[in-house]
Write a structure and sequence with these properties.
- The protein is mainly β.
- Helix content is 7%, strand content 54%.
- It has 1 helix and 5 strands.
- A 5-stranded antiparallel β-sheet has the order 1-2-3-4-5.
- It is elongated, with a radius of gyration of 16 Å.
- The chain starts with a strand and ends with a strand.
Length: 81
Amino acid sequence: MVRFAVVSLVALAAGPSWAAPVDHRVFAEYRVYAGGMEILSAGLDIDLGRTAYRIDLTAETTGMVGEMVSWKTSDRAEGVI
């Protein structure tokens, strides 16, 4: 059995401009399970500004799977709106 945590974000823009009226920052943590054991841990950090954005993702294998197959990543995407 695989369980996934799902986080849904909805941003509503005010007025005719599609850009966010204020800065927003969200951090979400995820744990992925298979067979009742935790196999992956991940974090997502989203920073949305008026004119720019940054998204950081970190993930790594955990538990018994992490002992057998060690894997880790840290990724970033950023840009201008």
